[in-house]
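Narrative of activities, Objective 1.

The group set out to show that a structural description can be obtained from nothing but a protein's sequence at a throughput compatible with the screening campaign. Below is one input-output pair from the validation batch, recorded exactly as produced.
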Amino acid sequence: MLKLPGYLVALILLSSISCKQEDTQTAARERISINDDWRFMKYQSSDESDSLIYDVRPEVTDTQDDKAADSKPTEAIEVSTNMAVLKPWILPTGNEFISDPSKKSVRPDGNPGGTYPLVQRDYDDHTWELIDLPHDWAIQGPFFEGWNTPVGGGMGRLPSPGVAWYRKTIEIPKEDEGKSIFLDVDGAMSYAMVWVNGHLAGGWPYGYSSWRINLTPYLEIGGDNQLAIRLDNPPNSSRWYPGGGIYRNVWLVKTDPIHVAHWGTFIKTNNVSSKSAEISLTVDISNNSDASHDVEVVTSIYALENGTSERSFVKKFDRKTLVLSPNARHSVESSVILENPKLWGPPPSQKPNLYLAVTQVIRDHKILDEYETQFGIRSIEFDANRGLIVNGEPVYIKGVNQHHDLGALGAAWNDRAAERQLEMLKELGCNAIRIAHNPPAPELLDMTDRMGFLVVDELYDCWERKKTPLDFHLIFPEWHEQDLRAMIRRDKNHPSVILWSTGNEVGEQYTDEAGARVAAKLRAIANDEDPTRPTSASFNYAKPDMPITAEVEVINLNYQGEGIRNAPAYAHLKGINTPPLYPKFHDKFPDKMIISSENAAALSSRGTYLFPVVDGISAPISDSVGGDPAQGYVSAYELHTANFGSSADKVFSSLDMHPYVAGGFVWSGWDYLGEPTPYYLSRSSYFGLIDLAGFKKDRFYLYQARWRPDFPMVHILPHWNWPDRIGKITPVHIFTSGDEVELFLNGKSLGRKKKKPFEYRLRWDDVIYEPGTLKAIAYKEGKEWSEDMIKTTGAPAKLKLMADRSVINSDGKDLAFITALILDENNLEIPNAAHSVSFTIEGPGNILATDNGDPTDLTSFSSPTRKTFSGKALAIIQSQKGQVVPFRITATSPGLDPYTLTIESAKDGPLKGVNK
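Output recorded for this entry:
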């Protein structure tokens, strides 16, 4: 039997099912990656930079970046200047996202920068660095060390600020004559401006937005064309590491002048049940020609199988006919009833089933365009008392907040690195992600769709009032509508997205009615763009009786639910002081669902345990209790928090005492670059349940015990290598999904303890340390459930390497994450080993980065040598494109035998299942 490739099967289906007999297939739409072979140059300093500025910025007089995360934002500073700025030529790029025609920008005459050498085709850039996108210009460092540096701990101590250029020559063949050709940029940090053959074509200032430039007027068909992109990343512009550069994917899109518009489909599912669902479709068609045309629009629905691209035909919408005016955009609507739909929902009780809508635009029996839209069929309810209801089933939100960086890879998008993060969150029991605090890479939402995560999609960290001197408050007045509509228009067909968040802890919480008006304006824009999902903003200060809280449709509370600085251990601290506010918000807004959009903000350094251990369940970090300012470490007993935070134990208790709360999002799932509270001489945060390298902290198991109650597990802390603590009290804490535990030290029972109501860990705080073996046996409903054992180890004797996967794709992008461990002669991992490990590679692979999860380690990520931290180090290995032979990674460490691991590289490796 002849087996056809999937794409041929799809073409046959399209021609036999989707189209009339006489319709002919064309390849009018092409979406081409242009990530490879760019030339890159970054100015050494702002003094050397050019004067092609987007706008004049205020003078920075306050460079302090170690402010408390809940510091009050301040007013913007007005700036006036006589300098020439390019903003008037950039603003028209956002016109398609402005609803009021009178507010659209008119491009001035002239071509600023057109004579600048770097935008010319004949400029010699061969001495520039040759790079591939996505690209983060700062991630290789070096790190800035100490105080009073150009970039402090808040922004990750890496050289992300600066001005840089990217250049690439693209060939537009003669057969593209008459087509519309676009540049799609998924993300560039920041203030991007694009020249094409010396013509300023447009740009976009917000570094997290995805955007499009129409290249057609500036291209020369039948030859080479020069793209030149200028980025300008300000200093003092972020509260975390923003990255720098064109850090997401870039595409060249070619269409017929008559085509489905940019992000031009919207699929809504109504009256959803397991028996039937109404599928409503809106298609926007752009006519970029100077003539009127009659066209037909037909869309077919396919079921996607098991999260892959394999498809089977399900149903077709009725064919629609419309008349297109010249140089205009038109919409067409249709609907269909789907019988016995496969619903999308979060595991484990539901499955994330997906569908694909294939839309064709047809004129005179010729298919002018074909556009694909992936979607899911699901119903979402936001109930003030029952919480979130998905397809009729209450689903408790077990969420994490995630920043956009990928650890040692920085902001540069990589499919596998992001997928690895999500896989570990699945193992944790997480079912929801809040994107903090900006639109994500579009591929991330493809993954959350496929894996079944619920997503809160967030736009901004600030509105008109600033948190850092040069953050995006500078662009908010002129770009908020474009940014918000662009995010929603791009992401609204993703079934994983359940809620739009327009802002995080914004300064407008403090401005009474004025702040409420801003919130109302953003809500109105979001509702206009997508009436199917509610909107919110996350409040850490606004109270129930303040005007701004009435302007959100879902109540998102940051830390206020469990209270801020209100427990006795926090009473001496300055800042926001709030009692637990779930009841007051619930009473004030009895019809609105409440989410704990940020909670905990607990702190720890993986594997580092400090003494004494506090008696209570939650305490702020201090230099004398829980913190080691000399080393920059925070105790891993998981009891200490940022000043405004609460421990996991306290958060769990508060949520359990208020069952109408729909669940929440812990700050944070993974450690991230920047914001290293409380030690701003460090490079990365202490908040994560998983450290920057991807190694699990003890807190991971505390959350796993809660979020996966049916998963047998028990976890002991601390480690049991304490030669200087013989005879001293060394508390032992246990996290388990069971309900009671018996603890043994060297075979002697230290007692059996049962969890009490609102108790989430079991504590043996009077254990006297002696070397040997700790063993915990967990019970559930009286029966043995799980056990864990840790032992005092011997001297370091050997190395060991472990890979997350033994086979990776040979596409030049796939990654293997290699963990290095230090073992004793009995093959026990040494949990406090601190050995220098050097990695080398033989064969078609590259050592992309190394890490160890230590927030204080300022060794460049590009170094092949890394000291183990709490016994572990990481090497990230990248395949080489087209090379399908194995490669070998070897680790060496002084005094230990080398260890070599082999990774297979295959053409059809694991990345095949990743949506790209």
